[in-house]
Amino acid sequence: MEKIQLHTVIYSGKNALDRLKSFNDKRVFIVADPFIIESNIIEEIKSRLKVGQNEWKVFSDIVPDPPVENVVAGVQEIAAFKPDLVVTIGGGSAIDAAKAMKEFASKIYNYEKLPLIAVPTTSGTGSEVTSFSIITDSSKGVKYPLVADSLLPEEAILDTELVQSVPKTITADTGMDALTHAIEAYVATNANEFSDALAEKAIRLIFDYLPEAYHDGNNAIAREKMHQASTMAGIAFNAAGLGINHSIAHACGAKFHIPHGRLNAILLPEVILYNAGLEGYLNTDLNPAADKYAYLAQMLRLPATNSAIGTRSLIKSIEKLRSGLGMPADFKGYDIEYTEAVKVDIARSALQDSCTNTNPIQPKNEDIVAILANLR
Ligand SMILES: NC(=O)c1ccc[n+]([C@@H]2O[C@H](COP(=O)([O-])OP(=O)(O)OC[C@H]3O[C@@H](n4cnc5c(N)ncnc54)[C@H](O)[C@@H]3O)[C@@H](O)[C@H]2O)c1
Ligand SMILES: [Zn+2]
Question: Which residue range or ranges hold the Fe-containing alcohol dehydrogenase-like C-terminal domain (predicted)?
Answer without folding.
Answer: 171-373
